[in-house]
Amino acid sequence: MWFSALKYSTAVPVIFLSALKYHVLPDRWTYVYHPLWLISSFVNSLYSFYWDVTRDWDLSVFTRIFKFNKPTWWSDLLYGQKWVYYWVIGSNLILRCTWTYKLSAHLRHNYLTVFTITALEMLRRFQWIFFRVENEWNKISKSSIQLPMTDIPNEDEKLVDLSDHTV
Fold first, then answer.
1. What's the whole-number mean pLDDT along residues 62-72?
2. Fewer CB within 10 A of the end CB, N or C, for the chain?
3. Which Pfam families match (predicted)?
4. Domains of the chain, residue spans
């Protein structure tokens, strides 16, 4: 729980420093706050990417991400094609970084760029949903929770017994 909160708290310095740009002298921004903004943006993007891949999607540690040869792991992948996972991992990393770029002060009046980056963020979140659902599906299907067989009617009980009906 604390590590999840840490993911969201790493965005606070990025947002704060982005807003601070308009309230400090240009030289002070260039030499003091801009490097801090870059560092905080880098930390936020990488930690959020790491969290998506390892926690939300459970593609586990990075050593397993690019080794799709584990049969138990590969058999649980719903989308089945390796390139889909490479695509979503790579695009997630790139799109995580573009969110920070959208906060750049020089884009304040560049509406087309901001619109494009926002649309790409929507795409990233759309992808995230599918892989998050896959992860939860894998957890449910692997769980040991089973319905007792007595609660499930067998096929004979579902059929209508014709001997009980008269025509």
1. 48
2. C
3. EXS (PF03124)
4. 2-140
